[in-house]
Amino acid sequence: MTWTHLLESIHDRLAPTMAKDFPNLPVEKEEGCYYYGTDGKEYLDFSSGIAVTNVGHRHPKVVQAIKDGADHLTHGPSGVIMYEPLLTLADQLAAIMPGNLDCFFFSNSGTEAVEGALKLAKYTTERPYVVSFTGGFHGRTMGSLGVSTSKSKYRKFMQPNGLTYQIPYANPKACPDGEDVGEFCVKQLERDFQTLFEHQVTPEEVACIILEPVLGEGGYIVPPKAWLEKIREVCDQHGILLIFDEVQTGFGRTGEWFAADTFGVTPDIMAVAKAMASGLPLSATVASKELMKKWPVGSHATTYGGNPIACNAALAVIDVIQEEQLLDNTKEVGAYAYEKLQTLATKHDVIGDVRGVGLMLGLEIVNPVTGEGDSEGLMTILQSALEKGALFYFCGNKTEVIRVIPPLTMTKAQIDEGMAILEEALTEYEASISVF
Predict the structure, then answer these.
(1) CA-CA distance, 416 to 233, in Å (whole number)?
(2) Which of 69, 166, 325, 388 could join 309 in a cystine, given CB atoms 3.0 to 4.6 angstroms apart?
(3) Angle (nearest 5°) at CA 55 between 105 and 145
(4) Per-residue pLDDT tens over the stretch 127-154
(5) What are φ and ψ of residue 128, in 5° steps?
(6) What helix, strand, coil percent values describe the chain, rounded to 5?
(7) Is the dihedral of CA 325, 257, 212, 346 positive or negative?
(8) How do residues 14-70 score in pLDDT, each as one tens digit?
(9) In order of start, what are the domains of the chain with their CATH numbers?
(10) Does pTM top 0.90 for this prediction?
């Protein structure tokens, strides 16, 4: 069947909730920082498969690791059998994890890692409630959905359990001029905790607090370090476990192995996935040995978690990040890209804000008259950029933020190429709305 016929049948064969995303670009190959379309065009990728292919698409070492792995084992299940890639990966991950996080439950996806983190926290504390933050995204299965509030449509008709409470995420933009952003956000956080604990739930009933150390799907908001430190302090004060959802921020995206390292705040439990195996399904719930030992055999299990081929790929990912010094590249190229985006913001009234850390950058698109987020305008800009050869993706509650999340292998020259395309798209969009 030809590509044309396949595309014509897409909405007959694939659930709309899966198939109707942006941009539905038909591709036949990926390599490095590029997708190659069935139209013969080359597309510079600023999405990394939604922060997955951090070492670039089809990195030769990852591809070879997958091939080598398939020559030996294609399936576990771990526990029934045991195999070297799983154990080696656990050792190598322990060496790069922050603090004392050195024990792993492997699964397949980010939402599974979050589910494991929530279950571990509830079981070991024997407390029923979870606190998360408005705007956070932690997955779409029922437990993780109960702590996800980036968009209300994700929870519509789902009725996730009522054992969760939400308080506002840090909002640096709301800080008045002349005030210290960290102090402002900490004061607001203290008021929010006081209201929560006095009116809704006692801290002694809270098993854990879960958050993204950099807000992802909710809009790429970077909180002050002091804000995260205050949350750590509150958790320690009340015996509450702190969970970092590093599904998107992990494996170099912020310029360190994990955002916990970037901010110098270590959680009790971490959920990691996405870039871990460069596209193969692999994730992990991570905690200390002491905490994991309180989770008895059979209280949590998996059939596919820790797949041997995926583990081989993950080992290659770690090697590539280290050998190619991608953490350093992320800091250097990320700072360069941030500066380029700031320059664009001075030229274009539709840019409301530039924010981010490392190569996790967000460009807020607004109505230049009202200052409100402009999802329609954003999609017009993304489509224009795509037609010119660059693929960007979106996030934000109102779909108002362009994600700039290229592979960590991207060069300054490729940043220049992508920013030139983005500027053309912004200029064309502003010209189109100036006539009204």
Answers:
(1) 42
(2) 69
(3) 45
(4) 999 999 999 999 999 999 999 999 888 8
(5) -90, -25
(6) 45, 20, 40
(7) negative
(8) 888 777 789 989 999 999 999 999 999 999 999 999 999 999 999 999 999 999 999
(9) 3-55+325-433 (3.90.1150.10), 62-323 (3.40.640.10)
(10) yes
